[in-house]
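Message: A physicist's question: would you kindly supply an amino acid chain plus fold tokens?
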Amino acid sequence: MQYCSTRGGVHGRDFRDVLFSGYAPDGGMFMPESLPALSPETLRCWRGLPYPRLVVEVCSLFIPPQLIPRDDLEVLVSKALSSFSVPDAVQIARLKDGLSVLELFHGETFAFKDLAMSCTVQFLNYFLQKEGSRAVVLVGTSGDTGGSAIHSAKALPGLDVLVVYPQGRITAVQEKHVTTCLEENIHVFAADGSSDDIDQPLRRLFADQDLVRTHGLMSLNSVNWSRVMVQIAHFFYAYLELSGLEKTDRELPELEVVVPTGGAGNITAAYIAIQMGLPLKLVAMVNSNDIVHRMVTSGDFSMAPSVTQTLAPAIDIQDPYNMERIFWLLLGRDGASVKTMMEEFQRSRRHALPENHRKLLSEVLVTDTVSDEGILETMRRCWEENQYVLCPHTAVAVWHHYHCPHQPSTNRCYVATASPAKFQAAVDKAGLPYDPPETVLALAQLPTRYQILERSPDWCKHWEERLRERIQSVSRTRKEGRAFYA
């Protein structure tokens, strides 16, 4: 299994290389040069496997045993998922009228990102211990990624984690998950801007290949292939549990999967699963930041003047960067075309999809957009009918259930990306009764540590310089064997 860049300039990398990377050196994103195809017989053999075992099966297709032997892979995945609050790390809530909710939020920070993040960090630690080396992780977050990265990597001796979050644009619980970890290897910055603003200096830092090589700089956003790879298992699990596969020994049935979408990592993992042989129909639901919806329906791949703050802040994103991976697959792995498209988008913040490209996209992706009022309406209706509280992001997906009724013969799955425990203000606004877990209530009493990235006329350059300085000082301090915080 070899990996290449979506922009055509890099080929022949192995899993270890891409695991310790951010963007590829040519600015693209790493993808397998070929995807494994799974037969119907294999899918039937996997039916009934617990989620952790499916993660191992999926990952073993992309990680050669000479890099991580199968026995070691099983240990790493087991360790990563051992602290989740339900036995198999995920579970499905089967509610009224065929509403099946795939709960991916039973990790330490109550978000789906804990699943792939904890596995990816274990893979990183495996190589770092084996090689006696260190790495510096740089993460921008729209809400959940930062906390998940911090809690997966805290106190690991070989990793320093720098997290940048948009101050005032995430919930109080999300902010506490980011700012209350006082471990020596965690470094947090609060930026006066949106998550899309944060992406700009991060891209520039990852483009500096001398900085990347010298300091072992890497990403744990879903830019990192390992995050997307583990998320592929979500969709195999959902399919094997909900498609009705056990009722037929003939043609594989289809499962419709509805995903709340921001950076498009989950929907990309689902599309890769389709390419591997899983018969899914994909629905990407977005909030008022509707670039994915506009792209699919009209070819308008352009960012709005500003990011709209909504009740579903983790998907308040106008740059769905993982769409680059979908474009690459849709266009037959044509790196040159993807490079032209994405460089124009990054330069001008807009690109008009040719009609043939838009049509290809619309054939694999159905989309719709949900307002804040639609989110609240969905949360209230789900509670009234099921006594089940949705987080606002999951409500973006479940809105589809109430407004696009499906045939009884069609099986659907709604992806729950976070617990309502992280979004008490939205739950209160919907007027729903909900008691957060004690671990969430305890966050309010914990001390915090972070630095502020202030807005200025030249904020992007200023933020880049501040982050560069911290990367260099962290790396220097660790080499000298000193503690970073006195």
Summary: The longest helix spans residues 459-479. The first strand starts at residue 3 and ends at 5.
